[in-house]
């Protein structure tokens, strides 16, 4: 069996290597998100044949922010995500900046990609919230203990990389009683339903029940479970459209970049098909520490 620490290092290196590509697709920042978007309206997604790459990227970014606003509403962020917050698996810090700017949270942005930490802190300075956002390079199951317990933990499409039982065990030691763990994630709904997600993103998706069992064993209970699969499905259409538009219009791409974009296009199309076919479920869970 693979060494768990080797797997952690592999994921960290994977995201370090993707930094430039993430900025190109979801940037320029400072709030850069690496997760799906929420599409509440009936307006059709943009397509490569009727929009330029920058326009499609702008729409993707707006809908990614809409996903966080939707999360803030169902998780009651004004009450639960306005104190000391752990953003576990923070990516380039878009969510961390969101909770700090929109709700005044004091955020510890946790990443296992060392190159991302200075990027997050640079964006925090750019936004004027460097006093409320700090980057921490750490494995999720080894979060450092603190004399001051946290009020909440958030994981936006990152918990699929964690050893979930050990993560919840650690959270039980760093959160205060009554604190919330807020998870937005892709869940398995049928055998092999999330294979494309797992293979493309190197993640290990699980069922909602798997999360509930891991959480309950650590002293948490499920408080909320909201399904947003249909409202997030259009993300893959726009993501594929941006990739296709880049391949068709950007003559400066290197052969390696073009190859990577073609792989991404196939993966986006396959993920969109899984969303539509019910092979996966996009859900928002909230657990409370007893």
TrEMBL record:
Keyword match Transferase: yes
Residues covered by the Methyltransferase domain: 85-178
GO MF: methyltransferase activity
InterPro entries (UniProt xref): Erg6_SMT_methyltransf, Methyltransf_25, SAM-dependent_MTases_sf
TM region positions: none
Name of the protein in question: Methyltransferase domain-containing protein
Family matches, as Pfam families: Methyltransf_25 (PF13649)
Domain of life: Bacteria
One Gene Ontology term from the biological process aspect of the record: methylation
Gene3D superfamilies: Vaccinia Virus protein VP39 (3.40.50.150)
Keyword terms: Methyltransferase, Transferase
SUPFAM superfamilies for this protein: S-adenosyl-L-methionine-dependent methyltransferases
């Amino acid at each position: 069996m693979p060494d768990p620490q080797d797997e952690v290092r592999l994921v960290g290196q994977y995201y370090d290597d993707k930094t430039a590509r993430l900025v190109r697709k979801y940037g320029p920042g400072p709030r850069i998100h690496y997760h799906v978007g929420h599409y509440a309206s009936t307006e059709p997604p943009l397509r490569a044949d009727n929009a330029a790459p920058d326009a499609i990227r702008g729409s993707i970014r707006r809908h990614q922010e809409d996903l966080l606003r939707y999360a803030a509403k169902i998780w009651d962020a004004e009450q639960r995500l306005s104190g000391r917050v752990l953003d576990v698996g923070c990516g380039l810090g878009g969510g961390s900046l969101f909770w700090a700017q929109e709700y005044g949270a004091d955020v510890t942005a946790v990443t296992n990609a060392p190159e991302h930490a200075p990027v997050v802190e640079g964006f925090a300075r750019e936004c004027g919230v460097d006093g409320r956002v700090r980057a921490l390079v750490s494995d999720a199951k080894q979060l450092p203990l603190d004399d001051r317990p946290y009020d909440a933990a958030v994981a936006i499409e990152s918990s699929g990389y964690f050893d979930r039982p050990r993560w919840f065990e650690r959270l039980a030691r760093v959160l205060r009683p009554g604190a919330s763990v807020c998870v937005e994630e892709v869940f398995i709904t049928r055998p092999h339903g999330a294979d494309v997600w797992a293979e493309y993103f190197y993640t290990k998706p699980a069922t909602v029940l798997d999360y509930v069992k891991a959480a309950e064993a650590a002293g948490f209970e499920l408080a909320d479970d909201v399904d947003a699969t249909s409202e997030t499905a259009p993300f893959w259409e726009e993501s594929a459209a941006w990739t296709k538009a880049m391949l068709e219009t950007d003559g400066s791409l290197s052969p390696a970049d073009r190859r990577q974009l073609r792989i991404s296009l196939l993966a986006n199309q396959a993920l969109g098909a899984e969303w539509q076919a019910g092979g996966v479920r996009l859900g928002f869970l909230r657990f409370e520490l007893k």
